[in-house]
Design brief:
Layout: E1 14-18, H1 25-38, E2 42-49, H2 50-56, E3 62-64, E4 71-73, H3 76-101, E5 105-112, H4 114-121, E6 127-131, E7 168-171, H5 176-192, E8 196-201, H6 205-218, E9 224-229, H7 235-239, E10 247-251, H8 260-268, E11 273-276
Parallel strand pairs: 1-2, 1-6, 2-5, 7-8, 7-10, 8-9, 10-11
Antiparallel strand pairs: 3-4, 6-11
Helix pairs in contact: 1-3
């Protein structure tokens, strides 16, 4: 359970599911700061794309490097070497994080679809970060790593991290799962010293007002903004502007994860997703 430090002797690991080592330093540090704040370990899962592996075995498959523009054959041996390089870079990043925070970490490699493997990795744990770093992030081109003096791992207090403009977004539906997600989102907003945007489903006027009151009563020390969203699977497309969020926090059993179309949409967001059990 993600709770106050020392309040529980059975703190589950914080899981981070990634598709690549690049552009992930910021999310690793955020996850490590959350882990350190509750006395949890960090478990990193590197997800190798099963579709890409199958394509690499085809004799006619070619790829074009996004940076150099060079076109070359895509083969499984080179893909394996690239994956080994990703794992090596992740281990180096985790070693630096452990030296800075004493947070223990592990790394394992799996093959499959990004979000499906992330959901599988989240079994038995309370919090899972998901970042598909193959996609272009809204803030591409700017550093994702906070300055050394601004790292959340620089001290025991979250005040060490400089404020970010982009808030944490959370869907609050009033059930116990989304209440836990709200607490995690609030803790992350404090660590990042940013505001919190709370999405509440559009129901009857009284129900929506009650949800807003519940969330506001639970969080007293943050800058809160509320957004009323459609009570169906399209709410995220309608409510979350591109690049508006630093993190999107959802209860693992939210309706947003119940159908294939929403899984596809969440994978296309290119925003780090945080799943809370």
């Amino acid at each position: 359970m993600v709770t106050e430090p020392g309040a529980s002797s059975t703190v589950s690991p914080i899981v981070v599911a990634l598709s690549a080592s690049r552009r992930c330093a910021g999310i690793l540090e955020t996850a490590a700061a959350l882990a350190a704040s509750v006395g949890a370990d960090l478990e990193v899962v590197l997800v190798e794309s099963a579709d890409l592996s199958r394509l690499a075995d085809l004799p006619v498959t070619r790829e074009t490097d996004r940076v150099s523009g060079v076109t070359r054959n895509l083969d499984s041996a080179r893909l394996k070497r690239a994956l080994e390089g990703e794992a090596r870079r992740l281990r180096q990043q985790l070693a630096r994080i452990q030296r800075a925070s004493s947070t223990r970490s592990t790394l394992r490699v799996v093959r499959g679809r990004m979000l499906i493997e992330a959901l599988a990795a989240s079994a038995g744990v309370d919090v899972t970060f998901v970042l598909d770093a193959r996609r272009t992030l809204p803030c591409e081109g700017r550093s994702q790593t906070p300055p050394a003096q601004a790292s959340p791992l620089a001290g025991s207090r979250p005040r060490g991290l400089q404020p970010r403009r982009k808030p944490v977004w959370i869907l609050y539906e009033g059930d116990p799962g989304s209440a836990r997600a709200l607490r995690v989102a609030a803790r992350l907003a404090r660590l990042l010293t940013c505001s919190l945007v709370v999405m509440v489903p559009s129901r009857s006027a009284g129900q929506t007002e009650a949800l807003t009151h519940e969330a506001r009563s639970a969080i007293h020390d943050l800058d809160l903004r509320f957004v009323e969203v459609a009570g169906n699977g399209a709410f995220l497309q309608q409510s979350l502007p591109l690049g508006a969020s630093s993190l999107l926090v959802l209860a693992k059993h939210s309706q947003a994860l119940e159908n294939e179309a929403m899984l596809d949409y969440l994978e296309s967001l290119a925003v780090p997703l945080v799943l809370v059990t």
